[in-house]
Amino acid sequence: MVLRGTLINTVTIVAGTVIGMLVGKNYPEKMKETVMNGLGLVTSIIGISMALQTGNILYPLAGIAFGAIIGEWLNIEQWVNQLGESLERKFGRQSQGLFAKGFVSATLLFCIGPMAIIGGIQDGLTGDYSTLAAKAAIDGFTSIAFASSLGLGVGFSALPVFLYQGAITLGAGFFDRVFTEQMITEMTAAGGLLLFAIGLGLLEIKRIRVANLLPAIFLTPAICYLVELIGVAGF
After folding, report:
1. How far apart are the first and last CA of the chain?
2. CA geometry: angle at 195 spanning 186 and 124, to 5°?
3. In this predicted model, what pLDDT tens digit does every residue of 108-130 receive, in sequence order?
C-alpha cells in the first residue's frame, strides 16, 4: 500500500491529540503550566541532542545564517501565524491563542529529524514502513502530551506531516540518490537548533521567530552538497 507508513503516522497524531485534549480538560491551569514547562525542557533536550550530531558545525551555522536572511525576507513567520490564526478562528475559538503555537511546535517537532527522511525513503523504495511505524508510536505519545496543554492545533500538524513524509516516500528514488549520510546528519543538526529555539519559547525564556529559520532545513544539506561538489578546503 502506498504511503502506509505516513498514513499510520498521521492517524497516531490525530488520535494522540484527541486523547490529549480529553485528558487536558481535567487539568487545572497550574498543572497545564507545569506540563508546558516540562514539554519545553524535553523539546530543548531533543534539539540539543540532534544539534550535537553534527560532524561540522559550520554547515548548520551557514544554513541557519542564510536561512534567517531568506526567512526574514519572505516573512515566513507572518504567513504561518496567519494560517494558524485562520484555523483558530474556525476550529479553536476557545484556545486562547494556543492553537497557532501548538500547530507550529508540533509540526516542526514531528517533521524534523532523520526518521522522517530515512523512513520515507525505505517505505518508498522497499515498502518497509517499520521506521515510520516506530516514529508514529513516538509521535502519538508526544501528541498526547502536547495536546493536553496546547490543544487542537497539535492535531492539525498531521496535515504537513502527511504532505512532507508523503513527498519523501513518493520521491524516494530521487532522495536516495541525492541525500548522503552527511547531508541528513547536518540537516538533522540544523533542525535540532530550531527545536531548541521552540523549547526556549515554550519555557518563555526567549521568543524566536522559528518559522523564519525554516529555510535552514533545506539550505544546510544543499550547502553540504555544494561543498562536496566543488571540494572546498577546510570542510
Report:
1. 41
2. 55
3. 889 887 788 888 888 888 888 88
